[in-house]
UniProtKB/TrEMBL annotation:
E.C. no: 2.4.1.-
Gene Ontology terms: cellular component: amyloplast; chloroplast
Organism field: Micromonas commoda (strain RCC299 / NOUM17 / CCMP2709) (Picoplanktonic green alga)
Catalyses which reaction(s): [(1->4)-alpha-D-glucosyl](n) + ADP-alpha-D-glucose = [(1->4)-alpha-D-glucosyl](n+1) + ADP + H(+)
UniProt name for this protein: Starch synthase, chloroplastic/amyloplastic
Length: 556
């Protein structure tokens, strides 16, 4: 399994893409798969070694020379592509020098990544990386490796040219492009690429990879009058035309995955499809005049798989950021002293201690009976922050407290500050972001508010469930799939009245449990179900493994 991604944590990360590509490959490797992650080398990574191998290929009207650096960790081979065009991504400036100002040549940079990922199978001695050079059984294992058709995993538009390049530059013209490259096992490597498949994962449909059509020839593909250009063609409503990298990836992939089942359905609607709804509903006709049905059409090939979380980082029994540790397993014992000297409390006492500490730190009234409602996230229209701000006075009037953490839209930042001024001691708005504070709020809150207008997957609700913080969430996308009545309060539509009614139900359930530390209260039962849910990457990895296994059994 070869992941291709613009980000991989901990080396490069701007958001959830880096987290997923840092966690899912390791979960698949733990299940016995051989997994590679190919990502740009934005800056010199001290723990990655130079493999001494390189590749030269034609792209952007010239020969491009890339070098490969490698790091083997948690049974995953991380392969980093070094090229001058990628070095500008250091210091977190992966996509541009500043927010809203992308690099002018991002199309070339990520086309380069896609080509380098495919070429790596021909350039790098995988038997050394996987099996340790000199192993007497390496040759046998190498043959077994190449007998299995690899499955590439293209992540978002940055890697969406992988399946297109596989189909157009390698598999449709295999005699030309798969000539022997070096002495070791090239025939096996070439044959493996000829049978390779690709799954495209769409983490963020909002970013499509829109490129001017005159850049087509820079991709080294056949001329525009062939069948490949329509896979990229993107027509605007005003009659203009562009290229759409993500569309091309979907057109030429064996399957596409979105990050929750509900979101996979929602993006096929005009409201949430970001203009791609017809593509996602299609059966392979990606041009009005050219039928690409001989490729893998999307009919029946669209999947939704919910992300997991790092259950070691997000663990209330060991979290270094919170003042009191707690675990659902100690509910009946009250407290457990671990061998390392750490005290682990039952959920009720541990969360009460975390709440009191946060109330003191943020200047809230120290009120153990006040249901504390938390919000953590980007401040923008998508997250429904305006809806929550409308409901804050109602929450406070009914005895609750509110703490919000986030940054983004200046108007919403002002709204958070105004909220705090109007409800001193009962509401706090922290403008900015802090990892320790996000953990503290997750542990201390009784209720997490997630009124997102749309949410492909969502992670904060999963972190909250892990800490026994019960979500009140708009029933959309991944929130619909993960926040059900057994562990929270889903609501719809996304408007203040519906959120207010759901919040009332949550606060009433919380108040009914006051003074009741037994597990027979409705609140405690919801907490127990939430905290004992398997939120790890194991569940998602098993689903991905089944999908990739099915694809590998039926390569192009």
């Amino acid at each position: 399994i070869v992941f291709v991604t613009a980000e991989v944590s901990p080396w490069s990360k701007t958001g959830g893409l880096g987290d997923v590509c840092g966690a899912l490959p390791a979960a698949l490797a733990a299940r016995g798969n051989r997994v590679v992650v190919v990502a740009p080398m934005y800056e010199r990574y001290g723990d990655a070694h130079d493999t001494g191998h390189h590749s030269t290929f034609h792209l952007n009207h010239g020969d491009q020379h890339v070098r490969y650096f490698a790091r083997y960790k948690d049974d995953v081979t991380y392969l980093f592509v070094a090229h001058p065009a990628l070095e500008r991504g250091g210091g977190g400036r992966i996509y541009g020098g500043s927010p809203g100002n992308p690099y002018h040549d991002n199309d070339f940079r990520f086309a380069l990544l896609s080509m380098a990922a495919i070429e790596s199978l021909l350039a790098v001695p995988w038997e050394d990386l996987f099996f340790g050079g000199g192993d007497a059984g390496a040759e046998r294992m190498k043959r077994a490796y190449f007998e299995t058709a690899p499955v590439f995993v293209a992540n978002d538009w940055h890697a969406a040219l992988v399946p297109l390049f596989l189909a157009a530059r390698y598999q449709a013209n295999a005699e030309w492009t798969l000539k022997p490259r070096r002495e070791w096992g090239t025939d096996g490597a070439a044959a493996s690429i000829a049978r390779a498949s690709c799954v495209t994962i769409v983490h963020n449909l909002f970013h499509l990879g829109i490129v001017a059509p005159d850049r087509y020839r820079s991709l080294g593909l056949p001329e525009e009058n062939t069948e490949w250009f329509p896979a990229l063609r993107w027509r605007w409503r005003d009659g203009g035309e562009s290229m759409n990298f993500l569309k091309a990836g979907l057109a030429t992939s064996s399957a596409a995955v979105l990050v929750s089942p509900s979101y996979a359905n929602e993006v096929q609607t005009n409201e949430l499809g970001c203009g791609m709804d017809k593509v996602l509903r299609s059966v392979g006709n990606f041009g009005s005049d050219v039928d690409l049905g001989f490729l893998n059409g999307m009919s029946g090939k669209l999947r939704g798989i919910v992300n997991g979380i790092d259950v070691d980082e997000w663990n209330p029994a060991t979290d270094p950021h919170i003042p009191a540790h707690f675990d659902v397993g100690t509910s009946e014992k009250g407290v457990v002293e671990r061998a390392d000297g750490c005290t682990v409390w039952d959920v009720a006492r541990g969360k009460a201690a975390c709440k009191a500490a946060l109330q003191r730190e943020l200047g809230l009234e120290v009120d153990p009976n006040a249901p504390l409602v938390g919000f953590i996230g980007r401040l923008d229209y998508q997250k429904g922050v305006d809806v929550l701000l409308d409901v804050v006075p109602h929450i406070v009037h009914n005895g609750g407290q509110v703490v919000m953490l986030g940054s983004g839209d200046p108007g919403l930042e002002h709204g958070m500050r105004t909220m705090e001024q109007n409800h001193r001691g009962r509401a706090v708005g922290w403008v900015g972001f802090s990892v320790p504070m996000s953990h503290k709020i997750t542990a201390a809150s009784d209720i997490l508010a997630m009124p997102s207008r749309f949410e492909p997957c969502g992670l904060n609700q999963l972190y909250a469930l892990r800490y026994g913080t019960l979500p009140v969430a708009h029933a959309t996308g991944g929130l619909r799939d993960t926040v059900r009545g057994r562990v929270g309060w889903p609501f719809a539509p996304c408007e203040p009245g519906a959120l207010r009614r759901a919040m009332d139900r949550a606060m009433e359930t919380y108040k009914a449990s006051e003074g009741n530390t037994r597990l027979d209260s409705r609140w405690r039962r919801k907490q127990e179900r939430a905290m004992t849910s398997d939120l790890s990457w194991n569940v998602a990895a098993e689903k991905y493994e089944k999908l990739m296994g099915k694809i590998a059994m039926d390569p192009p």
